[in-house]
Structures are given as structure tokens and as C-alpha cells.
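INFO  loader      accepted 1 record
INFO  loader      residues=399
INFO  predictor   begin
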Amino acid sequence: MKIGLVTPYIYPLPGGVNQHVRYLYENLRLRGHDVRIISSSHGLQRASEGDVIRIGRGFSMPANGSVGTITVSPRFLSQVRDVLEREQFDVLHFHEPFVPFLSLVVLGLSNSVNVATFHAFGGFSPAYQLGSRLMRPSIGRIHGRIAVSAVARHFIDRYFPGDYKVIPNGVDVGRFERAVPIAKWQDGTKNILFVGRFEPRKGLLDLLKAYRILRKTGCNCRLLVVGGGPQAKEARRYLATRKLGGVEFLGRVSDDERDALFKTADVYCSPATGRESFGIVLLEAMAAGTAIVASDIHGYKGVVRRGREGLLVPPGKPKELAGALATLLSNDELRESMGRSGLERADEYSWERVTAKVEAYYGFVIRRLAAQGRLPSGFHADIPPSPRAAHQELVETVA
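INFO  predictor   done
INFO  writer      dumping C-alpha cells
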């Protein structure tokens, strides 16, 4: 099939949704599909780069306690019409379809089978409450709905009730199998790793407070911090005023270096305060065989099983965070056991398996539309057989 993956965030800038789109793109191609990524431009990117199609210009703005993107263009309608006419997509797969305005314009002009994945989770959202009224025509154009977790499904179903298929995020297991620990940090001192944006909801300051407690109680450990963001100065000031050593700010690193850091860490810590729908970074830690200490929040509990892959603590509680870190750092057997459990669980979330589930859902939606006589005029591919029919055909072929 010809598939278009629509991301409202500026591809390939770092972020959970863009990472999801990247691996889905790669694995759908491996499964024989012709795939494009539709995104916006930011800075000096060209309008078209191989299979990446850019429409409009993206601007960053605060959203859901983090940073989101809004895409605008004076020629939105004509640009989108030209792209859709040229590409002739069978399926358009929208990721966060209601982030303004790229996805909404593409969805409004689409004559393909439209599937949407909802990634976000939060509490009450005035924007979604208002949008639930304004977006009714748009939600009606979506033929299939996916949520990345049960909590993401619960969140979006509050505003747009309907049937949602839960298909989780994935992880590139092989990438972490190939990673090698960094010798510089293999000096006998235990390593705690944090990877994330320096913003309140990621909980970095809580981790620094917990780390201070660990050091004051005599724990020989080091904190490796990857990322950047608006709280960078505040974090450095906290360390300087308390003369707290052993913290290494590594900034933004390459994918290969980040993979190596996961393999280097003795414990990965994610002290997020909430509004996390899944926690891809937890999967990455598990794929590296690294034990986890994370906040006991809805989006994380579906990934890390308490006491098996890691320890879960109440968010915003540095003392409890320090206690859990101390437990793992001092217990080699427990830490190694959690690492092994994480490796087994990460394999369940391999991108090969996740992509197979997405592909199967495309087929389900297409067959349902065909049975109802509602298959859009833009769908030109063969209708995928049902799993039962495909299995029967295989049996007959072998016989």
C-alpha cells in the first residue's frame, strides 16, 4: 500500500512522536509498503528530502507542560491538495491529529483511509474540551483510532468517545544489543542515568535533591544527565550552591552515545511528575538491560511492572526516590534480576511486533470500510485478507 505518516512535530527533531514515526516508517517499508512522512519545515530544511514531505512552517510553543508545535502556511490548502494529488495515498496515518494545523488540513482534504494514533495523556484539558465541539467534523473523517496506552485511550475517549485499539510504542531492541558501555564511566562508581528535557514535568530537580541525599548518606555514586531545556540554569545553580559533585551534564548526545550510556548505567531514573502516556525511555532502559527507578504514575505503570523491571515511587518525593535508588545501587543481585526481566519485556515491544500490529489494524479498518461500502475513492490497493483467510491460504499452499 501507499502510506503517508503525518506528524505535526518537525521531523526529525527529537521527541517521542517523531521517534515513533521514524521506526514505523522504517518497519512498514521492510514489510513492503511505499511510505512517506509528512511534516513541516523549521529553519533551513528543504521542502522535500527523499521520503520526507514538508508543508508549512512549524513554530514551538508551550503545551501540556512541555513544548509543542503549531504549523502554519499562507498556502496550506493548495500545498496539501498538490501533495495528495501527486502521492495518491491509500492510507494516511495521523499522529496526534488535532495538533494545529497541518494534520487538520491534510485530514480535511484526504480521500484516503484515515487512521489516527493518539499519544498524549493529561488531566482535564480545556483545549480538548473546546476542541471536542469544534473538531466533530474532523473526528468523523477518521476511520480507525489507535491509542499508545490504556491511559492515553482513557484520556482521549473522555473528549472523543469511540472505539480505540491500544497499540504501544516500540523499541529498537537490536540497537541496544549492539551498544557498548563507555569505559570512562566504568571505574567502580555506580552510575545513575537521566535522559530527558529539563522541565518541571520530567522531575530533574527532584532527582538532584534525591542525589544529594544519597551523597550525604555516603553512597558512592555518579549522576549522568542527558538533555537540555528551560530548567538548565536552575539545575546547575542547585548543584553550585550546595557544592554537590559527581554530576555530569552531558548535554544533547548522539543516538549511539545515548545507547552506550544506557548500557553504562547501573540504574536508569525517570522521576516524571505526570502527564506521561507511555514512557518510551523506560523501554530503552529495559532494552539495555538496565534496572529502573521511576515515578508511580499512570503512563509508567503499564510499562514497568512493580518490583520486576524496576521500583516505582510517588512522584515529587525526593526522599522516597533516594531510598529506591539506594536499594538498587546496594543490591547487585536485585539490580541484575531486574535488568534480565527488562530485557525479556523489551522484546515484547520490538518494533517488528508493534509494526505488525499496526499493519493488521490497517487491514481491519480497510475490510470494515469495504464491508460497509464506505471505502474512500482514494484507496486503490488490494483489500488485505483477514488473518483467518490468509492462514487458510497458507495451509492450502503448503498442502
